[in-house]
């Protein structure tokens, strides 16, 4: 079944052929979104989730696929074979994605699934369909420190041939700082879910915590989902969701997306998965400029991000 679903999903993308392009950004309530998403957002907002549905929300390249796989494995008691039934974007549809036919939209895929469903979104809090809050769905939000998130997004925009051309690294830093990328401002995104986390019962996770102690964070997710699995299963899930294992797993490494869309010869979808890789990209001058702007943009909220991890400590900005 997994191979059939993978082939049909991949074939739909290949059949779209000439329709694949770098889509322009259109602002929606001040948030730049790719045109094919912006033009379909009314349908997304009309989506009515089941109360049993789970939403995994992130800014792009903040640990989305990692969290999707952890959750799927928890729901299947660590059964690796069950989680190979289909690629990640089929098992856990991308809510707002809408591409040229015959590629199925996120809503198309969700219509074919019975609840409970694992649903992915990159929408900032204010653009999430109200049905998720009205139905009191569980929501997991994963945040990654700004500098590493920026680096990862830069490489992703280079290889994802539907996203706007990233341009040179020096200019991309400014685009990130000014919120001119797909799905808008990182600053607004992480703050939006943070200030609502208690009122909306959002489990707010940090990528750096997940890297530092994956077992602890998998257990946090398990408790939030009101599940109970054995220590042995938790350990198995930690192993199955290591970066190395997921990078080699065709169900999670996005090899199902053909090169006209994700050109992994430019950069692999799963590139490094490290904390602190930003130190290999920012010059001292760029880092100083970025830090000064960061302090201004984050002065109204105290979110405990870490840009480096030293053992069980960390350097915080």
Automatic annotation (TrEMBL):
Subcellular compartments: Cytoplasm
Protein name per UniProt: Sulfotransferase
Domain of life, per lineage: Eukaryota
Organism (species): Scophthalmus maximus (Turbot)
GO-annotated cellular components: cytoplasm
UniProt keyword rRNA-binding, yes or no: no
UniProt-listed Enzyme Commission number(s): 2.8.2.-
Keyword terms, alphabetized: Catecholamine metabolism, Cytoplasm, Transferase
PANTHER family cross-referenced by the UniProt entry: SULFOTRANSFERASE SULT
GO biological processes: catecholamine metabolic process; xenobiotic metabolic process
Pfam family, one: Sulfotransfer_1
Molecular function GO terms recorded: sulfotransferase activity
Family annotation (InterPro entries): P-loop_NTPase, Sulfotransferase_dom
Domain Sulfotransferase: 51-301
Taxonomic lineage of the native organism: Eukaryota, Metazoa, Chordata, Craniata, Vertebrata
Family note: Belongs to the sulfotransferase 1 family.
